[in-house]
Amino acid sequence: MNDEKKEAPALSVKSAKELKLPTAVLALDISPDTKTAFASCLDGGVYAVDLGSGEQHKLGEHDSYASGAALIAGSPLLVSAGYDGVLQWHHIEERRTVRKVSAHNFWSWQLAAAPDGEFVASVTGQYICGGYKYEPLPEREPSVRVHDAKTGRLVHSFSHVPPVQCAAFSSNGKFLAAGNLMGEVRVWELASGKQVASFTTPSFTGWGIIKGHYYTGGIFALHFAANDEELYAAGMSSTTDPAAGNGRQLWQRFSWRDGKKLGETKDSDSGRGLMETLAFHPSGKYFVMAGRLENGKWTMAFFDGATGAMMHSLDTKSRVTKALFSADGKKIFLAEALGQAKPKDGKVPDFGRISIYDIA
Amino acid sequence: MRRNIFKPLTCGGVDHRIHRRMFLQGLAAGATSLMSFGGLFSMPAFAQQAKREQKHCILLWLCGAPSQFETWDPKPRTPYGGPFKSIPTKVPGVHISELMPKCAGILDKLAVVRSMKTKQEEHFQAIDLLTRGNATRPPFVRPTLGSVLGQQLGQLDSPIPNFVLLDPCPEGNEFKEFKAGNWAGWLGAEYGPARFGGEFRPPDIDRVEGLSQSDHEAREELRKFFSKKFENERKSAAAASHNAVFERVKGLMSCAHLFDLEKLPPKEKENYGPGTFGLHTLMARNLVENGAPFVMVANGMPWDCHVFNHEIHQMLVPDLDRIVFQLVTDLEQRGLLEKTLVVVMGEFGRTPWLNLKRGRDHYPQAWSLALAGCGIRGGVVVGATDKLGVEVAEKPFNEQNLFATIFTALGLDPYAEYDVKDAANLPTFHRVENRAEPIREVLLKGGAA
Asked: What is the pLDDT of residues B288-304, one digit of tens each?
């Protein structure tokens, strides 16, 4: 791939709607008819949000931050996950929680649902000092849990090095990938439960030299390409100052079977800041990476899938935690957090947002 | 009425007072008497008594400033409270962060202050404030806590430096700047810290390879004889100073093993480690056990979590939890806790509100710290913040209250006056200015000043 010589096609992205929520939205899914958003939030609540009226209805609540939200294809179920380590199943039509499964002893960092509605996967792991340089201690519980998406039954428990911060299913539902703080990606075949690949990219992980001697960063989002043979990872590039958060906005593309790196964000395209989400347009032609900005011009950017060239970018003035395209590809939905403000009259001002953009 | 800082103290026992008085006599004798300090302890029984009375202080310096929400003052399920729960402790009704289960189990030995309220919100100025205990007043540089305690509690015949700074991190932004500055202030450079940890150690203290211990000692005796002869005949202050340096180096050579991580017992390393902060805390315990009056343990500025506050605290706080538990437990088992003050603090707290980077920023308005050991009443939680952790709701304390507490706990007069030669025409300086009250609730005897 030669990113430098190819020009990106034009793309129009316009803000269509913005809904305020009282608390940061950490995870999001959208109903197929795009009328309802399902938001997992920092207050632990899992909400159904009417995207027309903005009305919010609480479906359930976690005992800590709610970090995951995934609709199960072909069912009326929404699965949520939280920093309480619990997975919850909610019936979205009856608006009630139907099942709770304790999946981890620590946070669920991220929840992913297989496109075919068969499995959900949740990843966990506490970063515990395990060496002189604060290398992570090996896991004390399986870092990856795969559950039957409809019954909640535990199907697989996979090992990894904690903390495991993100997971993604392949579009054909056959593979699961998970990435961690140290930049290691492991891939499992779900039918056999066998690990079929692993590779490590050092690009996302920093060891603190300036202020503290420990590791920060890692991979925060994974996404299989439409062909399922390539895997994208996102985060920020290594930084030697853990307190600065000023690594480069970074995605990398890999041939996951052999771990060969095929491409990454061009220096000229990226500013500084942590990227937390990847989403592919239904056409498979381009993808979005989004997160928050430390220094630069954008929090969300669209990249050509073939060339890696940036097609469009914008600054949402927020931390984008999740980006999702509508099935028809004409809209993109963002889950967002603003910085918390000081209380006014004893109340904390709203700091959550769901935004909708029209794409042409 | 002016009280001189070098006057005998009002507590600490008769022998302790004698110890200080003899130290003064040594000082009064002038520079050329430096070598005579060793002679003060020529009577073994007296030296042993002095050591029995020896008090110590270990400062676990959490530079960068930890979050009070994720440590001593949790506010679970509130908008600013973060993702961690609180857990009950050994003190009925008191909860701390779930990241500190070991400290929860020994909270009856700790005193927690939840209502620190200071004014400096930038690192350098706050480090300066919280290590010196009073605001700076240029051009006069107030000595840091370690320098004061090194001077006041130091053993004159100890080969171990009276102020040891253990910090393996060579960088550290503002703390690096601070470390390069003047720690001892008007007490003089001899009360500055000797820095160890990681690659930091005094140069040239290893015995020359191929030189046997007996040959080394014979050479030293010969050198000492000629140097002393020269010093006496010429009345040379330079020679006296030279000799003093040799004595210091000789002392360091004799205790070099205490600064060697490789020589720490594996089982103990397991209890404290494997991270650098824990291993250096174990080193601090060993140093105290061998007579060091003041050891400050740091590790750069790891707590400055403007980014990934929760993600970093979920690693650093359990490490701290284990280290504090192990240190306090070890000191108690060795009979050293009642003579050793342990201070666990940073230079301020962190904001209740989370920023866009998942971080908490600097917050001196309402923060927490913990104390244990010498002169401290365990199982006490003093002060409180409001429901959201934004303001101090009960009993605000500042750096002067804290330093008055530390000095009182160690049996030192917090209000004693410094004898600063250059400040003759200026208001006098005291260990703690404004006669700020100690935090009496955490003191065993309500103060000894």
From this structure: 999 999 999 999 999 99
Please name the residues in contact with A19: beta carbons below 8 A apart, sequence gap of 6 or more.
A37, A49, A51, A54, A353, A354, A355
User: And the tokens for A72?
Assistant: 């199960």
Which CATH number covers residue A175? Answer: 2.130.10.10
Alpha-carbon gap, residue A46 to A67, rounded angstroms: 9
Q: Considering only A175-179, A311-315, B50-54, B220-224, which range has the smallest mean pLDDT? A: B50-54
CB of A63 within 8 Å of a chain B CB? The answer is yes
Report the domain count for chain B: 2
Smallest Cβ distance to B64: which of A132, A211, A244? A211
Determine the residue among B200, B269, B315 to mutate to test chain A binding: the one whose Cβ has the most chain A Cβ atoms within 10 Å. Answer: B315
Give the ranges where chain A is alpha helix by DSSP (H): none
Q: Which contiguous run of DSSP H or E holds residue A150?
A: none
Whether chain A has a CB inside 8 Å of the CB on B74: the answer is no
Selected residue of B61, B84, B281, B307 to mutate for chain A interface (largest A Cβ count, 10 A): B307
Rounded CA-CA distance A79/A91 in Å is 9
Distance CA B235, CA B238 (A): 9
**Which residue shows structure tokens 């042993």?**
B48
The CA distance from A275 to A273, in Å, is 6
Distances (CA, A) of B231 to A259, A317, B25, B28, B428: 72, 72, 21, 19, 37
Distance, first Cα to last Cα, chain B: 15
B346 shares a domain with B282: yes
Q: How far apart are CA B187 and CA B132, in angstroms?
A: 12
- Residue A171 inside a domain? The answer is yes
Based on the fold, state whether residues B322 and B270 are members of the same structural domain.
Answer: yes
Strand partners, A255: A230, A260
B372: pLDDT strictly greater than 80: yes
**In terms of Cα–Cα distance, which of B324, B317, B62 is closest to B167?**
B62
In-domain check, residue B292:
yes
Is the peptide bond between B139 and the residue preceding it cis, with omega within 30 degrees of 0? Answer: yes
Distance from CA of B144 to the nearest CA of A (A): 22
pLDDT tens for each residue of B374-413: 999 999 999 999 999 999 999 999 999 999 999 999 999 9
DSSP string across A73-121: TTSSEEEEEETTSEEEEEETTTTEEEEEEE--SS---EEEE-TTSSEEE
ipTM of this predicted complex?
0.95
Q: A74: burial class by Cβ within 10 Å (0-12, 13-18, 19+)?
A: exposed
In the numeric block, which tokens belong to residue A146? 């795969």
Q: Are residues B368 and B408 in the same domain?
A: yes
Q: Give residue B322's region: left, alpha or beta (phi > 0; psi -120 to 50).
A: alpha
The residue behind tokens 């608006």 is: A95
Instruction: List all residues 6 or more positions away from B195 whose beta carbon is below 8 Å from its beta carbon.
Output: B164, B165, B166, B167, B179
State the Cα–Cα distance between residues B283 and B164, nearest whole angstrom: 11
B96 has which bridge partners? B87
A111-166 pLDDT, tens digit each = 999 999 999 999 999 999 999 999 999 999 999 999 999 999 999 999 999 999 99
B337 and B429 belong to one structural domain: yes
Q: Would A219 be classed as within a structural domain?
A: yes
Provide the domain limits for residue A288.
63-321
Q: How far is CA B313 from CA A132, B173, B347, in A?
A: 18, 20, 17
State the Cα–Cα distance between residues A39 and A36, nearest whole angstrom.
Answer: 10
Amino acid at B351: T
CB-based contact, B69 to chain A, within 8 Å: no
Residues of chain A with Cβ-Cβ distance to B316 below 8 Å are 214
| Straight-line distance from the first to the last Cα atom of chain A, in angstroms, rounded to the nearest whole number | 26
